[in-house]
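SUBJECT: protein chain
CONTENTS: sequence, structure tokens:
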Amino acid sequence: MPSTKNGESQAHRDLKRLALLWAQTHGFRVAAAEVSLPNHRVRMDVAAYQPQRVREVRRDERTRQERRAWKTTVGFTAIFECKASATDFIRDARSMQATAERLKTLHKKKERAEQELKLHYPSIRNGDSLFQEYETLNFERPGYERYEKILGEIRQLSDRLHGNTKFDRLTKQGAANLFYVVAEPVVVRSHVLPCGWGLLERTGDELVLKVKPHWHEVPEEDRLAFLHRIALGATRAVNREHGASYVPEGVAAREMARALTAPR
């Protein structure tokens, strides 16, 4: 598989490009590749942010009338990890056959339970997309005991596959609201995905959503910090493109050093 100068395969680079395009097409208008999270000691293939606007009602005391206006609030965050080959994913996941087979069975049960929840609990919708097929759902919101039991076993087995990997660190430390694996066809089977991660599969020159991710609650200040990391990553990319190199001082220098040494 051909590689670029920094050792990255062209296939992996193509997946990052497609992830950037998919993110921006689906509302995550702020996005960058190779974004580091120093507190988590990882570097993300693609990080994205979706601005959020809510309608606010204000009362004009002079006219005694209500006025409706749009207010910008802290938006949503997403992480995309690209896998161009099965060996790349398996190395990260430490896959075990028996665990994978059990997960396959559990995921079928989980899908049946989710169909029931979608019918009886419309409140599970997060309202984070204009298009229903891309809207994420919070199936844990109703507190459905059977579903939670299935999900608990999936988490336990998923931890065997992905424990202490990059996938595991990102989800357990609440790095983003949404997580996606971006892969070539047949590289990643849905039942061995890290628990709660979505799957975007390459079809030709576009990505197709095969598995929706679960929603993860993240505090506002962490989402804002995430947006700042995207801005720093994008600034480094622009600097490289234009040859605008400089040596930062103080806190900026320490952050840049951590970003350059963060594991991928």
Notes: The first strand starts at residue 30 and ends at 37. The beta strands are 30-37, 42-60, 65-83, 178-183, 198-203, 206-211. DSSP finds seven helices and six strands in the chain.
